[in-house]
Amino acid sequence: MNRLRRQATIALIALPACFYPLTLMAQQPGAGAGKVTISIAQPVPGSTVDHHVVKVRGAASRKGNEHVWLLARRTDFAPLWWPQREVAVDPQSGRFEGPVTLGGPQDVDWDFDIAAVLADTQAHTQLLDYWKKAMTTGDWRPIDLPRGIQGLAVVKVKKTRR
Fold first, then answer.
1. Whole-angstrom Cα distance, residue 40 to residue 45?
2. 57 burial via Cβ count (<10 Å: 0-12, 13-18, 19+)
């Protein structure tokens, strides 16, 4: 019985990011009722955006030291992501907002995924190290999601011209 449960758990964890729902509620093992959640309120799924920089708004419920990061990718680049930045979360409301960059002029008429993630300390450190290196070197290669992502919310938008 334990073997079947372990196989089912592994199968769920191995799902590609495109199968995640708009809002994923994750609970750390043995954490009891304390859940971490994250969601994106803006932009709304399926919307069109006519700027290469888009403001993302959402909300997060954290248990402790989780960090909220925004990521983006053109959908045909899955499963890789471009980390955009860590965003501050209002401690009372749980709301956050921050900009994401959606490619360049060559990416007009493409679909993009915008993600907000809750990262534990290890994942946050990996994302921050990537971001610092990219900012100082200009090397913005996409990366896999690091281990330690506690929650993930994704919306798909289409980049268009003005």
1. 9
2. middle
Please give the radius of gyration of the chain, using alpha carbons only, rounded to the nearest integer: 16
What total of structural domains would you count in the chain? Answer: 1
Calpha distance 8→62 (Å, rounded): 26
- For residue 25, CA distances in Å to 10, 22, 60, 103, 162 come to 17, 10, 10, 29, 36
The token duo for 20 is: 């995640």
The three-point CA angle 99-24-122 to 5° equals 70
Give the Cα separation of 3 and 36 in Å (integer): 27
Which amino acid, one-letter code, is at 71?
A: L
Q: Give me the domain span that covers residue 46.
A: 2-159
Instruction: Give 76-122 pLDDT, tens digit per residue.
Output: 999 999 999 999 999 999 999 999 999 988 999 999 999 999 999 99
User: Domain containing 79 — which CATH number?
Assistant: 2.60.40.10
